[in-house]
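Following the same procedure, sequence and fold were stored together, as reproduced here.

>
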Amino acid sequence: MVLLGAASIVLLICVVCLVSIVKWRNNSGKGKMPEGPAPLPVLGNILEVKPKNLPQTLEKLSEKYGPVFSVHLGSRPVVVLSGHEVVKEALIDHADLFAARGHFAFGEKANKGLGIIFSNNEGWLQVRRFTLTTLRNFGMGKRSIEERIQQEAEHLLEEITKTKRMPFDPTFMLSCTVANVICSVVFGKRYDYKDKKFLSLMSNMNNIFEMINSRWGQV
């Protein structure tokens, strides 16, 4: 029984490695993926890509492989764009080709790929067009929204002044500022930075995004 169990484990490992190698060959064929470090079966480029130091790691890889290169996160191939020029060329000069969004397992399971945040492909393009049209009707891109942004910037400066030049993390405060601009456009009112319901909503949203972006959330 022990030998049979050990043989099953070895067979399972061989099958996983074989499937990974076949998938890697299919994904890394000539003309399909740009140059990059050779991935290991199953693990991909986990030895080269350090999750805790990801930006610096990718920057070092770009020095070796150029501004456009590929890495494998596990068995998934990923194309990396490094530098202002290539990012501008992709997102502005070829905006239509890069308009779709990457697959996000959490969103696909939770929202079935629907909604503003988790939609993708043609559904995302339709929602995006509808959202932009609707927001323009509310004043986005017009003089009125500039005034609302300037007014909210004044409230932000007041909150920063209250720190009395002491070091502070502006992340949450800036999130509240952006949310207030959106609220003033959609609802016609802003919320005080001490409003308990507003702060609770912002805190819950930040916690959700932190959970999604964590390692467990990605798994």
